[in-house]
Design brief:
It is a single chain. This protein is mostly helical and 53 residues long. It has one domain (1-38). The protein has two helices and no strands. The chain has helices spanning 8-18, 27-30. The two termini are 13 Å apart. The mean pLDDT is 85.
Length: 53
């Protein structure tokens, strides 16, 4: 099953964590995530939604 993220910045952070920078993200890809630490720098867009988690 394909995972969908409405917030592109959040999707980007997930992709970095699972080391999958392109292609579909599947629910199976996400099962290895135990912790997600996101550091926000002022020149990056902010995460506005966690919908789809």
């Amino acid at each position: 099953m394909k995972a969908l993220f409405l917030d592109k910045q959040f999707e980007h952070e997930i992709r970095k964590k699972i080391r999958k920078l392109s292609g579909d993200i599947k629910v199976e890809d996400l099962k290895s995530i135990i912790e997600l630490k996101i550091i926000h720098y002022s020149d990056e867009p902010q995460i506005a939604s966690l919908e789809g988690v």
